[in-house]
Amino acid sequence: MSESQFSFLDAEFKPEFESASRAEGYTLSDPGAAVIYARKSLESAVKWIYQHDPSLPSAYGDSLNTLLNEAAFKALEGGRIFDVARKIQRAGNRLFAF
Known about the structure:
By secondary structure, the protein is mostly helical. The protein has one domain. The protein contains five helices and no strands. Helix 1 runs antiparallel to helix 2. The termini are far apart.
């Protein structure tokens, strides 16, 4: 595989780089695995944002759904982060819905 579009994460965010690059690598060959790794990356990124953005209040829980649905998080970057995050979350939810 050629260089990952997530290579910029490798130096400072090794676990996130690994899951994001795996999601990228499985996109065509195993979309289910790609969704799992994308969601894992999302959860890690959202928790990092909460730890490092003082504009976000402490959430009342640490589930991905709780963190994403906090009004201040939804408002970040005009809602664009929330929109993409929600798509990844829903794809993961559909994968595990029986």
